[in-house]
From TrEMBL:
<keyword id="KW-0560">Oxidoreductase</keyword>
<dbReference type="Pfam" id="PF13561">
    <property type="entry name" value="adh_short_C2"/>
</dbReference>
<comment type="similarity">
    <text>Belongs to the short-chain dehydrogenases/reductases (SDR) family.</text>
</comment>
<dbReference type="InterPro" id="IPR036291">
    <property type="entry name" value="NAD(P)-bd_dom_sf"/>
</dbReference>
<protein>
    <submittedName>
        <fullName>SDR family oxidoreductase</fullName>
    </submittedName>
</protein>
<dbReference type="InterPro" id="IPR002347">
    <property type="entry name" value="SDR_fam"/>
</dbReference>
Length: 268
């Protein structure tokens, strides 16, 4: 099974930290050209500038990843730097708590815009470019691969993260819909649904409330919190030739958490 992505060009959003950063770095290590994109310019500069110095494989782009103009400029910057795009990973996420009984829908709308609509619109934009590239080359090879990141909240709603949970569920459904729509164009679309991963958000939660570490570990059959690099490995598989016949799937990377009921989890 080939996991080679050497020579491919990838856009990774949310690449300034955590899971997105781990994915982008893994792609670079495997020989891909990578555009690191994030909304936090200072953070992106701090993470990427040293690695990018003298490395023609790396570029960075900072802008609000939920804005249409920013998305168009991101794609243009990628084409200017590398001439094409073969891989898109939508790892940009924003998590905000919400009151499930509050009638104010602002938080819900923001969570949908930041976590679902941004990924959907970026996928549509990049897919059109992938189709054009395939038409120009007139080849029979795969035209591109897209991966969307969501979390277990999409299948197991968290009451005080209701807006985020709804956005994750919507993104999973959008992933499957795009997979069907883009399959005739030889573009594969998959998702990774994760939980119990040492993401930026997880680190923040553990700083605020260290005691939840024990609860997470107790509810995870494999008995630990995964490293971001482990999620990066899954994403790399999905965009590689090794997953050439895989599309429309949402792979769950959660240490078995989603298959353990609350009673079983309390005994682990």
């Amino acid at each position: 099974m080939s996991l080679s992505i050497r020579g491919k060009t990838a856009i990774v959003t949310g690449a300034g930290r955590g899971i997105g950063l781990a994915i982008a770095k893994d792609f670079v290590d495997r020989g891909a050209n990578v555009m690191f994109a994030d909304s936090d310019e200072a953070l992106l500069e701090a993470q990427v500038s040293e690695a990018a110095e003298g490395n023609d494989q790396i570029r960075s782009f900072a802008a609000d990843m939920s804005r249409k103009l920013a998305m168009a400029n991101l794609l243009s910057a990628t084409i200017d730097a590398f001439d094409r795009v073969d891989i898109l990973v939508n790892a940009h996420r924003v998590v905000k708590r919400s009151d499930p009984l509050d009638t104010d829908v602002d938080t819900l709308e923001e969570m949908l815009r930041q976590n679902m609509m941004s990924a959907l619109r970026m996928s549509q934009l990049v897919a059109r470019r992938m189709i054009r590239q395939a038409d120009e080359n007139q080849g029979n090879d795969e035209a591109g691969a897209i991966v969307n990141l969501s979390t277990l909240a999409g299948t197991r709603p968290v009451p005080d993260l209701l807006g985020y949970s709804i956005a994750c569920a919507a993104l999973d459904h959008a992933t499957r819909g795009l997979a069907l729509a883009l399959a005739p164009h030889k573009i594969r679309v998959n998702g990774v649904r994760f939980s119990s991963v040492m993401s930026h958000e997880m680190k923040g939660a553990l700083r605020e409330e260290p005691s939840i570490r024990d609860s997470i570990i107790a509810g995870t059959p494999l008995g630990r919190i995964a490293a971001a690099d482990e999620l990066a490995d899954t994403v790399t598989y999905l965009v590689s030739p090794g997953a050439g016949f895989v599309t429309g799937q949402i792979l769950t990377v959660d240490g078995g958490r989603s298959i353990a009921d609350s009673v079983t989890a309390s005994l682990l």
